[in-house]
Amino acid sequence: MEEVSSVSASPRSASWRLDVHRCPGQTPLARGHPDKPARRGQHRQIAGRNHLFRPRHEQNLPASESSLEAGSPGFDSAATRQEKKCKLPSGFRQQIWLRNYTAAHHHHASPGTSTMRTVAKLFGRSPLVPLQVHMEKVEECVNGVVEILEGLMVGMPHEEICERARTVSKLEHNADLVKNDIRNSLPRGLFMQVDRGTLMSMLSDQDSIADKAEDIGVLLTFKALPLIDPIKEHFSEFVSKNVEAFRIVRTIISELDELAEMGFGGEEATKVEQMVDQVALHEHEADVIQRDLLQALFNHEDDLSKGEFLLWRNLLRDIGGLSNYSEKLANRVRIMLSIK
């Protein structure tokens, strides 16, 4: 007799308990559906087709193997029992084992799950800490694209620009992985220091900054752009204003956990509000410079091809997006402080 499982049923209740060896197995299948797992309560339907699902007193099995003598028909030695346990069973028991094994070793399932486990642990301390982890990834994207823009102003070869742009794309992908892990690990229905909706909105704004950094790099790979003098005059200042707005909001996010410990009040809150005002100021100054650059671009459109003109227009727009989303993120922090 193959030792597969044992079922015990309480005489006073209709509850059933299925003890299955942790061998590669599968969940019970529904009647008439070979690929569909059985729902709760359908084990009785399967029980009619397999005596192993019946209560022990209906299986015609000895109550205890210890009462059997060696060599008797119902006796199995320890070696025989171990051999039977190691055999690969069939049917639903394979899926049960696989499900249990995957749950116990899910940190080996894929490279991204280890990050998710780490983020989940961070939520035990504060939901703001994972937001700071994501911002670190976003900062890597912005730093990468700043190097590309600085290279554009000094005549960096187009091949090197393309290579650096690919690096920024990889960094943005890493930021997306962290973002997805945070969304999947964010607890539901639990009291948190920050509203869940506010936290998700802030995460989305940070993701938009990383996306803009990647877009800037991708635009510069399409064609080698000439830097005409009317644009070169204010282009460096334009980049600096947008990047400075991001640097300030990055500092704000890095201090959120300390701000939460202070109850979102006191001198720390006043300091953060002042930094939010600085972000708004830099965003406004960047907008003014952007209008001047666009005017210069249209005034000298004859000096550029249609493709170069289109790329410059989109490039200025995406660079300006760095400060736009930085201001949006800073304003969410201001709203959070006002509510608290």
Give me the secondary-structure topology.
Layout: E1 5-9, E2 16-20, H1 43-47, H2 78-86, H3 92-104, H4 111-123, H5 128-153, H6 158-185, H7 196-222, H8 229-254, H9 256-261, H10 266-299, H11 306-339
Antiparallel strand pairs: 1-2
Helix pairs in contact: 4-6, 5-6, 5-7, 5-8, 6-7, 7-11, 8-10, 8-11, 10-11
Classified by CATH, the class of the largest domain is Mainly Alpha
Residue share in β-strands: under 5%
Count up the helices.
11
Estimated helix fraction = 55-70%
The overall pLDDT, averaged over residues, is 75
**Helix/strand order:** EEHHHHHHHHHHH
What is the terminal-to-terminal distance? 68 Å
Query: How many strands, which pairing sense, and closed or not: the largest β-sheet?
Result: 2 strands, antiparallel
| Annotated CATH topology of the largest domain | Methane Monooxygenase Hydroxylase, Chain G, domain 1
Query: Can you tell me the CATH superfamily of the largest domain?
Result: Phosphate transport system protein phou homolog 2, domain 2
Number of domains: 2
Can you tell me about this structure?
The chain has 2 domains: about 5-105, no CATH class; about 110-340, Methane Monooxygenase Hydroxylase, Chain G, domain 1. Helices cover about 65% and strands about 5% of the residues. It is built from 11 helices and 2 strands; from the N terminus they run ββααααααααααα. It has helices spanning about 45, 80-85, 90-105, 110-125, 130-155, 160-185, 195-220, 230-255, 255-260, 265-300, 305-340; strands spanning about 5-10, 15-20. Strands 1-2 form a two-stranded antiparallel sheet. β1 (about 5-10) and β2 (about 15-20) form a beta hairpin.
